[in-house]
């Protein structure tokens, strides 16, 4: 079997690697041809999203994976998981006992790729800009605990927070907190198109066809000073229309590495050792999939309708028929490997039951069958999404309580339509911004949430989320986190379905593959190197 597995046990909600595969990060050689990485992520501009790569707008795993290579942040998630470490910063720490004052000192001699110095004022400008623009993507909500930002000289930045936030160091490791040059980014306007400039490990250039990036080229930035060691001089990220086209490219040697999103069939084939030249690496991931609801929409406005769906959906059947061993049923927004996880939906609904679902609808006076449409994206989460929604549709309709149809849309129209509230029920995925339970709850439930959902619960927003963030020891936050998950299971503004593993396939002369993705599905292209073919 031409496969290698990373085993990453959970420790206090964070993951620490104990086994590396396909060579360590330092085993690759520099120089030579560019390492070519394939992806099915699509990078497009539209009238609704003309600035997909602006740090103040970007908020999906694909665009963030471009920004993490190019736009430096004060803090960074380390290769081996755990607490964030300084990157653009020399040091950062809370300077009070209440986790409300956070101070950072920049590395000496820090420069943008252009050669301009990076100053504390640039950090302040960058983060205040994201908060001021407050883009429709909802990404600025990650920074909503910031009250004011103070600078002292050119190297010191002090964040004064509105409330205690023990997760704040993680938030400073996300691209929305990326440091940009005021010369390149206007204060009150997003930067349209595909240009990206920063002080990260690489510079970036996009080959554009129509309104989409076909090839993204990352070239080692000689001015970079930070936490990572760059093991190559150049990486090309090529976008493919689908997993089959990407798979054919790696078989022919046109690409060296295959990332998201491979199809279940491809993974099974590689797992069985179908190729002597291509190795499959599987590793723990924190990806989740869920149904989201526009709780103002007439078809699902009644909580009883959403509860009945939660009572009917058979997660085990979805996993077995569509994803096999590549996924596991999920009964909370918080994955099972993260501290604070609670099986809240199973605790409330137990095993699927049509009789219990019928009782919920009858008690609420809801006429059946309830007619609704389930919307999904055809090209963002992989080709298996359609089959998943076909299984969901059959489960609901076989109950006799629903008359459900399904409708697929390309991501470039799906995401804006979802944000505008045009879908009553729709399928989404989540790749965490950082590996903490807070990031599986607050983005969906807090004010100005990622989904643009009208659902609001004052207890969650004003009591439970702030209480959980006061706990620097995340084990102590479990009580508040569990209470949030129990409310979600009762109100069902979202319906969690499954959590998945993640996979990378690479030709046998590529090293550092085990660290090409971290648990948050962050591409770490700097880990890749070129060795000797076996």
Automatic annotation (TrEMBL):
InterPro entries: Peptide/Ni-bd, SBP_5, SBP_5_dom. This is Peptide-binding protein. It comes from the Bacteria. Residues 1-20 form the signal peptide. Belongs to the bacterial solute-binding protein 5 family. Its main location: other. Keywords: Signal, Transport. PROSITE patterns: PROKAR_LIPOPROTEIN (PS51257). The keyword Chaperone does not apply. Pfam families: SBP_bac_5. The keyword Cytoplasm does not apply. It is found in: Cell envelope. Residues 84-449 form the Solute-binding protein family domain.
